[in-house]
Amino acid sequence: MASLNYPVESGSMYIPDIPELAADIIESDSDEKAVLNIACQEFGMFISSCTIFCNLGALPLNAEQAVNMVNHVTGFGYTLEEVMTICRRIWYLKRGLSNLFGARKQDDSLPKRLLTPLKSGPTEGSTHDMDLILKEFCAMRGLNENGLPEKDVLEKNGLDALVTLLYSQAKRPEFLPSPLQPF
Description:
This protein is an all-alpha fold. 51% of the residues lie in helices and 0% in strands. The protein contains 10 helices and no strands.
């Protein structure tokens, strides 16, 4: 999924008009990392999936500037708040589609190599508490114990058809595996 974690956390992208991305980021701190990740995912949907901006080309833009550019080119009149709502819906749609193809909570992990602390350099010995981050992330995103978005979260985001596909006991299209079985 599109995310802006790297450019935001590295300091190469500053987005002061999104409060979760305007705060000082402590690179080695696990607290609040889920909040940061969600904001990076949602605005990342706009940059990478909706506008097809190259992340490098978007680096000098703040959120309002990016939205204004799209409005100017397309003739739309979106606000940043509307864009973030649309992008949240896109995130849940992508998550639900991944779930339909077998992705589950246990797939929300990083390779062991990325979780191994470095022995030297500015982040020497630093690790993140991934259990804490994932617990906060799942709670904030409204994901159940299997990693599927809760029905009410999907309904709130206008994804009723996805609720039916994920939670219905009706016969599923043959090209989709059972949501309880990885493919």
